[in-house]
From TrEMBL:
UniProt-listed InterPro entries: Ion_channel_UNC-93 (IPR010291), MFS_trans_sf (IPR036259), UNC-93_regulatory (IPR051951)
Gene3D superfamilies per record: MFS general substrate transporter like domains
Principal cellular location given in the protein's record: membrane
Record-stated family: Belongs to the unc-93 family.
Signal peptide feature range: none
Ranges that cross the membrane: 32-50, 62-82, 89-105, 111-132, 229-249, 287-310, 330-350, 356-383, 419-439
Record's keyword terms, sorted: Membrane, Transmembrane, Transmembrane helix
Intracellular or extracellular location(s): Membrane
One Pfam short name: UNC-93
Top-rank lineage group of the source organism: Eukaryota
Name assigned to this protein: Protein unc-93 homolog A
Membrane topology according to the record: Multi-pass membrane protein
Amino acid sequence: MGEKKDHPNGLDMDVGTTFTSPMSKFRILKNLFVTSFGFLLLFTSFQSLSNLQSTLNKAEGLGLWGLTTIYIALVLSCFFLPPFVISHLGCKWTLAFSMVCYIAYMAANLYAVFALMIPAAAILGIGAAPLWSAKCTYLTQTAVWYAKMTGTTSDDVINRFFGFFFLMFQTSQIWGNLISSLVFSPKTQNSTVDVSPEALAKCGPNFDPTVHDVNNTNLNRPEEDKVRMVCYIYIAFAASAVIIVAVFLDKIKLDKTENTKENKGLSLHLFLETFWHFWRNPYQKFILSYISCGIGIWNIGFVMITYGVVDAICSITFGRLVQFVGHIPFFALAFFVHGGTQIALLLWIPKPEPVIIYYIFAALWGIGDAVIQTQINALYGYLFTEDSEAAFANYRLWESLGFIFSFAVGNFIRTDVKLYICLFVLFNGMFGYVVVEYLKNSEIKRNKKDKGLSTRL
């Protein structure tokens, strides 16, 4: 073994350890790019289309019921499919076949009715759990190989790999939302239409989804030919993602050992419950209650582009910086940024001017989301390297429970109530994260003490 060095998270790293990797550094980095680019294309379509659901398909709550169905199916899929599918198909073909499930949902939006949208949403949800588990497992495994080849810690390289992945992944918010906003923009203007002060007063925290405001033309559905054009573009992007992954991604064989959960020193159940409470995506409330209601559906994309740009830049930046300061400062940053943003949204009533406020809120949310996306995935990759398929499937399960609750109640309660709920679970989530860090640091200190004792003996 090589020389030991300290790490900000209390980990040891081996320098100069001999290791024969199944693939070269270049191939590992090439596969990181192919995986990231495939997800960029797929989620250019899906994230932008899901951003529009609460407004584009708001009749009878179809859009939100479709999103709810996605995450119900995803939860059920998490229980059974990821380890089974990955063990039989491998990570590469699990990614490719799971991506096909997303295309069915995008096609259903061409004729958005319950009979098509709900089954298509269920198909997407079934494919989503294996997709994300295979992606996380693939990146974790190749990051571990790269770390051994370069003499750095797995935690550092996993953070950098997930940071790069989410840099590309979050730019999907740019391209997809740019497409929707350019297609949906009115021909004569790109601002807002005239809306009465009375109608605007019902936006923001006062927005009630059970009340249909016929006086607010900002919430009107775009023309059908424009909706179809957007759907066709998104389908083409998703199909391209499938082809790229199928052709250019290398297959890998996963490392397995007999090391089980009891050797991890950390309750998997507690860890998963922690991040279920870290409910990370109340921006659907921001989209419908603030952007659509205040400045029109065609401006959703432009505002969300800001969110995507900031999220992407912060993802790669935080992924690099974590090796110097550890995870804790970044989780604290996300807590204060998201908490402060939600309190501000409770107090602010949207108006057409100044528009810059909408972009500021989106940017702040992107900062916090970059932390949560990169750091949770990286922390999972480090803690559960040898049980990665099951661990990431369970992570998606608990995350999806939050989505289900969010979208299911979205049709029935006012935005201010939703924000109070978000603040409550955010505080609980941060408390749970502090507990997890304490348990993990205690385990590291205990292991170091045991190693020192055995050395002296």
